[in-house]
Hints:
By secondary structure, the chain is α/β, with parallel strands linked by helices. It has helices spanning 45-52, 79-85, 107-119, 123-136, 142-145, 155-167, 185-202, 213-219, 237-242, 247-254, 315-320, and strands at residues 3-14, 17-29, 34-38, 61-69, 72-73, 90-93, 173-177, 205-210, 222-227, 230-236, 304-307, 310-312. The chain has two domains: 3-89 and 171-320, P-loop containing nucleotide triphosphate hydrolases (Rossmann fold); 99-170, no CATH class.
Amino acid sequence: MMLSVENLSVDFRVDTGWIRSVDGVSFDLPANATLGIVGESGSGKSVTALSVLRLHAMRTTRMAGRILFDGKDLLAMPERALRRLRGRDIAMIFQDPMHSLNPVLTIGDQIGETLRIHQGLSGDQAMTRAAELLDMVRIPDARSRIADFPHQLSGGMRQRVMIAMAIACRPRLLIADEPTTALDVTVQAQILELLRELRAEIGMSVILISHDLGLVAEFAERVLVMYAGSLVEDAPAQTIFEQPMHPYSEGLLRAIPSPDEDVFRLYAIPGRIPDPGRRPPGCAFAPRCTLALPACSAGMPPMDTASPGHLVRCPVRLSEGIR
Ligand SMILES: Nc1ncnc2c1ncn2[C@@H]1O[C@H](COP(=O)(O)OP(=O)(O)OP(=O)(O)O)[C@@H](O)[C@H]1O
Ligand SMILES: [Mg+2]
């Protein structure tokens, strides 16, 4: 297995002490595969992704579990070894605009920097390669674009530049955290199509993170549904789309706007996700769940097998058996 996350927990230090942001997350990702992570805002998607590259502030973060990449535990690896891996073997497109493009550097300089650091290219070589990469992400007239500053590009083009930087070293794993959220629907589709093509071209695995289940299920072979820091369902995309078992996954599915539905009648799951540190005991979704029984609040139910390759954290649904 290329990537195995085993029982990952992440705690952050806040004024009042430590709070658990991600709790007992486990999943596998083979080489050359696509995985989607979906869940409402605050469910722990970005914290999980940043953990893979160990990008949390060390002094205020506590991590437990293992993240095996090629069998080596990234959480136990010395920082220096990890630095070599970042950007080269595992690349990330960040949700946080702080990590995005530098407004005072040209596109070419920014892509070139990655190439100089990781591949030791000279300035000229880096520029040539930067233009090739812009070509790869289908930016028209790439050679002249390398002299542009980020503000001279549209949002969609800027996102293509981010992708070019991420694939510069032909990573084996690309983590894309909400790569299309700020874009309009047409551009969104184009960017996902580009990611799909590049994945095939480079032969990398992609983790796509989004709050949009429709988007994730269309892109990825496998989908993880997260709620309040924990996984609640892990299944092939088609299963999540056609026969989700967890009531939360069902809610997300119902919340996808359908083209023939009135926008104003859009379904939203009643209630809201609890803040870390204020999670109810037992299943964190129970207070919002129409199926919840008293037992659901007694203890955190385990992830259990519904069918081969389909895990769900809902004893009520599991006891109903195959529907
Ligand atoms: N550095 C941090 N210190 C303290 N709490 C944090 C930190 N980073 C994230 N959190 C908290 O952890 C929880 C999970 O955050 P995360 O960013 O992973 O959510 P997300 O699923 O990516 O949401 P979104 O869809 O809004 O991006 C949130 O409640 C968030 O406030
Ligand atoms: Mg996020």
